[in-house]
Structure formats: structure tokens, C-alpha cells
Inverse folding.
């Protein structure tokens, strides 16, 4: 989907005002009736070469919370107990470009996969097909997933 120059400048303004990607995603729907996935919004901001503005408290934390280097285990961020962790499968699920497991802050885990078309999907747990992670955990998952995929060259 192509955005007009006015829409691009509006998105730039929103990001420079300090809006999060989720807020930009909601604003695109409300203002322009454009529905994009969180990942698409992230790519849009990257394509427009807009630097995200971090809130003051995040800037102070960022030095202490730097991501640990990815080692052979393929774990993206071990974090504290109760945080979101993303793992990448050594052998990809059939039909997916890349796949893995996400461990949410409530202790539950789901498989995930990214299809060749860029469609991201969570794989329901057979034992608990109704499980839905919190919006905060989903946002953290998408941020961590993008980081690991960029490190792997996707």
C-alpha cells in the first residue's frame, strides 16, 4: 500500500511527537482508514527513516537493559522471569520462512511463524486453544521478533 506525501508527513509528525508504533497503527486507522499490522507500521517507520523518540524513563533504562548477544541457543532476550522471550527454530516449520516459540510473561508459550508473504501468525496451543496473550506481551513479542529477524538478515 502506498501512502500519499501528506500521509507520510503525518506519520512522521506522529512519531516525532513521541507516539508509539501501536499508537501510530491506531491513528492510521482512525485518521486515514488504513489498517496495517504492527510489523507493517514498524517497516513503514523504517522506510521513512524516522527515528523513534523514546520516553525519558526508557532512555534511562536502555543502558541497563541492553539485549544480550545471541548465542547458539537462539534465544533473543532472556530477560527477567515473567518477561517475554522469543526463540527461533533451528529447523523451520513447513511452509514458513522463519518460525519459533514465544514465551509470554504469564508463563504460557505459543509457536509463531512468518510466512513467505510476510504474514505473522501465532500457533494455538493444543491444550488451551482459547489462550490470548496480553496486548503488552504481543507488542513486546513483535518488537523482539523484529530485532532478532534483523540480526539474522531477514
Amino acid at each position: 500500500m502506498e501512502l500519499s506525501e501528506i500521509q507520510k508527513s503525518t506519520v512522521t509528525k506522529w512519531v516525532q511527537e513521541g507516539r508509539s508504533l501501536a499508537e501510530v497503527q491506531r491513528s492510521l486507522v482512525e485518521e486515514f482508514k488504513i489498517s496495517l499490522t504492527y510489523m507493517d507500521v514498524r517497516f513503514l517507520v523504517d522506510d521513512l527513516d524516522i527515528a523513534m523518540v523514546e520516553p525519558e524513563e526508557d532512555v534511562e533504562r536502555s543502558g541497563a537493559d541492553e539485549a544480550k548477544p545471541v548465542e547458539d541457543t537462539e534465544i533473543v532476550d532472556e530477560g527477567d522471569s515473567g518477561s517475554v522471550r522469543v526463540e527461533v527454530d533451528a529447523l523451520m516449520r513447513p511452509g514458513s520462512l522463519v518460525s519459533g516459540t514465544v514465551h509470554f510473561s504469564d508463563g504460557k508459550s505459543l509457536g509463531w511463524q512468518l510466512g513467505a508473504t510476510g504474514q505473522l501468525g501465532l500457533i494455538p496451543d493444543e491444550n488451551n486453544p482459547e489462550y490470548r496473550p496480553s496486548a503488552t506481551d504481543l507488542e513486546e513479542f513483535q518488537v523482539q521478533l523484529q530485532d532478532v529477524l534483523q540480526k539474522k538478515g531477514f
